[in-house]
Amino acid sequence: xxxxxxxxxxxxxxxxxxxxxxxxxxxxxxxxxxxxxxxxxxxxxxxxxxxxxxxxxxxxxxxxxxxxxxxxxxxxxxxxxxxxxxxxxxxxxxxxxxxxxxxxxxxxxxxxxxxxxxxxxxxxxxxxxxxxxxxxxxxxxxxxxxxxxxxxxxxxxxxxxxxxxxxxxxxxxxxxxxxxxxxxxxxxxxxxxxxxxxxxxxxxxxxxxxxxxxxxxxxxxxxxxxxxxxxxxxxxxxxxxxxxxxxxxxxx
Length: 252
Prior knowledge:
The protein is of the alpha/beta class. The protein contains 10 helices and 7 strands. The protein has a domain at about 5-115 and about 190-250: Alpha/Beta hydrolase fold, catalytic domain (Rossmann fold).
């Protein structure tokens, strides 16, 4: 059984598992590390197969595999209860983990998508995957659109990370996961733990607070906060606030 690689910060009894986005890895959270309470918390920054510290762990890069991998890692670490933090693409994975693993006590979702994935036509899905496969500057285009407020140094950093933090097959696999247009009919889940959500005021409209609220209206215990000075990366753009909020939400 493969065990995902991770970076641990802190030695406390309160455990937090962090999952990354499509165009980044666990280093996305590096900016918050100086501001974490390392005495009371143990933070595990996990890389999925094909990403970062797990770049050499190959797989099929789909939802079922990712869910099993994270649950297996938590069992391997002998963690009895935890909060699960996930960003963008991995919020879909996290929602399915929480429906299967009763050790998860709270979901903290950053700029999330629905557990059903992202609705898309077959043509649009195939076009996007084709552009990503051919490396036709699609990553650069996405970074440019999401970084209007920032300088070229930031854009270069994000582009370089997106291209080098993972292998192409992993990016395509997880992108295909959340673009699966048949997902809604095939998978229905129940989440019976609190869901805390951070959105960014300057993020893409699909990640806006109002749009995100629609994705989660079926669940009962949901709190959504819009970060006033953030786009898609509140952990990088507002690291002190982010670290403080994650810790303050730990209430068991």
